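$ fold --in a.seq
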Amino acid sequence: MPRAATKLQPFEATTGIPSSGAPCEEKFSDGRHSEQQPARGLSASLTLFAMSLGYGVVQLDVTIVNTALDRIGASLGGGVAELQWIVNAYTIAFAAFILTAGALGDRIGAKRVFMAGFAIFTSASLACALSPNPIVLVVARAVQGLGAAVLVPNSLALLNHAYPDEKRRGRAIGIWAAGASLALTAGPLVGGVLIALIGWRSIFLVNLPIGLAGLWLSWKYATETSANRQRQVDLPGQVTAIAALGCLAGAIIEGGALGWYNGFVLAAFVASVALAVLFILQERRAEQPMLPLSLFGHRLFALTSLVGLLVNIAFYGLIFVFSLYFQRINGLSPVATGLAFVPMMGAVLPANLVAARVTERLGAPTTIALGAALAAFGCLTLLGIAPGTSYWKIVGQFVIMGGGLGLLVPPLTSALLGSVDKSRSGIAAGVLNATRQTGSVLGVALFGSLIGRSGQFMSGAHHSLMISTALLLAGGAVIWYGASRRD
């Protein structure tokens, strides 16, 4: 890789974390400088609130839509494949654009880009609510995912600028992350209540007041970061990345609906491989690649990225399956379905809090492996589900799965960031985000294709649970064995 590719600019490409805590300085085209002082006092607190709204609304839409899938299908028509696209259009755009969105914030200023992301997300939410058919909804969800990708890294960049003191910044980021966890947990329940009271379109309309509040607070109180015109945006890498991921997801989704030997499906698989090769070649020769391949030369970085991919395939793929199982097979209402997921999501946060102490005692690789094993055990013990299985025979396994996920994610993130130089922590965090979102795309695509065929829902659900168990055990074994190896 050329030397220029390894030298990152002061603001990292994905989260916008600066290499130092110094106040940012913006350069104008005539050579003048404008001091951009960080927010203080009330302004800093309201900036934190605005950034938390941005990250929270993104996480809310990760889970809230699953509760509405059955009602959306009944209202707009279409089968499981169309429902998969409604979920995955959002996640594909989120995964594919998150690295470039951070670089764009570096180049023209995180506040400008963050506000544009909020405007995109809010407008797309309105379009989702007004969608007359599945095609329009899928397109609007993709635009929503683009807005989400813009919001996440630039919200963190603005937080970093608002809180130059390391201790205060750490607390602010903790609040930012906790708000997102709360939104992720509340998504199914909030969605169920809104659908019961108003209808499925309300799950998108709820984003409008959040978006307007976030835009106003950002405009009023957030201070702009520096505009680094030397930071390049890797457009060829961006185009090939989203095309490769879209083709792969499309091949898996349509493979379940059309058959794996269908000409379109085979062509999509071939295209995804060809585009992935083009993406790698582009990243190898780019001066400032969106995905520096040299990072994967660090064994721990490569291992944690792989585990993040495998865990999200298993976890989010099963959320899609069980959302339909509760409503279509067991006949639960949207509210009851939302309530059904609360114990699983609710177990994540306390497990997050315990993870640090467990990691201190056992080390990150062992803690990650333990979390993966717990989640795998939860999946394995769900293999006995059938139509009409009582929820009370499922809830315990849900708690174990959520607890396992909550236990492994903090040390996974910490181990990945610790495997690279601090100057590259921003891009490293972005890669983990992109990798995990890619896993979510593949999980929904794969498991949806297994349950999508007529009369095969339960067999597909059982296969999904077996695959999830295998992936989680593989992930735990890979990190535990691979991290302990000595070259």
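$ fold --in b.seq
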Amino acid sequence: MAQQERAIRTRQAILEAAATVFAERGYDGTTIGEVLQRAEVTKGALYFHFSSKEDLALGVLSAQLDFGPLPPQATKLQELVDQGMVLAYRLRREPLVRASVALAIDQGATGVDRAMPFRAWVAQVTEILEAAKAQGELLPHVNVVDTAELFAGAFAGIQTMSQILCEREDLERRVAVLLRHVVPSISVPALLATLDLNPDRGERLFAQYEMSELADHA
């Protein structure tokens, strides 16, 4: 068990070091040697977890989706809202998540599947929306795949604008505004009053998640 925990910590240290270097130098300007220096690990330790710089970049790209399950909600549309608000909160709080998003839009990252996190998030949102439709939460005209792609694309644009304007200080407010415009166009009217679209929703859910993690390891 102790060996497994060390391996997990080593992998996380490598990812965080790589994220820092990718953020500073871009994908093409990053070398394995600099990642090793920042992470303070051996070459063997790095290659135990990641086979190449591309594989390391894919690990960083996965960070934005690498989060435990959110608490189930009475409605699937609330779960959709929660996905967006928690990611917005994590973007402000976690350097690895910020680096993951930056790498996804780094056009110099040739040879890396930068579409992977977008495809994964669209698939995740599509699954939530399909469940919402099955429960009668969506208006009849809603195409779940189109809506999932719109949500993922709009979120990407909103977070980029927030990052440029104010280092994402207002990101949760901007995402809440996005949701207040998108959700009424797909939700049955009776459901709207039950949804929590407040900007601090992500922070509150993240606090619950951390408390649950602490309780599990107590």
